[in-house]
Amino acid sequence: MNEELSQEDQFRLNVLLAQDVKAIRLDESSLALHALLGGGEEASMPLHPDCRADKYLRLVREALSGHALGSPGGYPVYLSRWTRHGQMESGNLGQLLMIGEPEAVVAVVHSPALTDELAGYAWWAMPTIEHARLMLLRDSVTKGRMGPVLVNFLVEHLPFLQEDHLAIMDTVSVLLHSGILAPAQREAIWRRGKRQNSYYVAFLEQCPDDLPGNSFVEACIEILSRPDTQEVVSRTLDAIGRHFSARGSDDDAGQRLARVKAGLADPVFARSTAIGSLMRRKLEPILAPILADLRALA
């Protein structure tokens, strides 16, 4: 059974790796290897397997790993755990992008040592919504060349999240946190809350005193009057508690709202996975007094 790359592929791979390669991506469907070079150019080479495609791709990754990491065994699982928890040395991050392994790209994206330059290479290797969100949490990225690139990507892809309320909240939160959104983009995202109020939640979390439209209290009333999912409820309750705790209040309603937290809904959520109107009925005993206090302050 063959355990080596074909002579043609081995020769072309050696020629490619002699250049200033910054990242490598393997296209498993078309059996091709793509490389990003230091000048921004891209190079591609078709693969010519003489065995099963999955086995041949493993051989390619072993060759790449041997060149980049000095370890032909590929990308071990334990290394994946280390890098996801930020335990990979920053000097090795660039080499991880050279082995054509998606999990290695994930490790780079998770690293606290991520630079704007490496973010660009990782983005070329694996451009996903999750990766854009993660990289925008790094100041080096938001203040660098890649910040606007990732922000515009997420803004363009927000409509495709559709009913994924958790992804909507997480994405909008990252966009607001980045500080890169143009005023028109910010207002357009806020207006989406008229159709899906999960869009409002991130604004309550990130900029409670600087909302594009309603006041904080009015936005909370709108969300809690018709929340769609348990995550929307929990994050809104936490935002209410943080906001009123931080501002302080002499009136009874404000003092009660300062004690609001997600845990108030936990007994209901522990017994039910309901969403929508059924969830709202089950939560009514908890949300009714909170809504009453909010309306008293509106």
List the helices and strands and how they pair.
Elements: H1 7-17, E1 21-27, E2 32-37, E3 42-46, H2 53-69, H3 77-84, H4 93-96, H5 102-110, H6 116-125, H7 129-135, H8 139-142, H9 146-157, H10 165-178, H11 183-191, H12 198-206, H13 216-225, H14 230-247, H15 252-257, H16 266-271, H17 276-297
Antiparallel strand pairs: 1-2, 2-3
Helix pairs in contact: 3-5, 5-6, 7-9, 10-12, 12-13, 12-14, 13-17
Helix count, DSSP H or I runs of 4 or more residues? 17
Give the overall shape, derived from the CA principal axes.
Answer: elongated
Stretches where pLDDT is under 50 for at least 5 consecutive residues are none
Q: How far from one another are the termini?
A: 75 Å
Spatial order of the strands in the main sheet? 1-2-3
Order of helices and strands: HEEEHHHHHHHHHHHHHHHH
Percent range for helical residues? Answer: 55-70%
Q: Compute the gyration radius: what is it?
A: 24 Å
Main sheet record: 3 strands, antiparallel
- Average predicted confidence as pLDDT: 91
Beta-strand content estimate: 5-15%
Beta strands, count: 3
From the helix content, strand content and strand pairing, which structural class follows?
mainly alpha
Give a written overview of the molecule:
By secondary structure, this protein is mostly helical. It is 59% helix and 6% strand. The chain is elongated. It starts with 6 loop residues before the first helix and ends with a helix.
Summarize the structure.
The protein contains 17 helices and three strands. With 298 residues, it is mainly alpha-helical. The protein has a domain at 1-112.
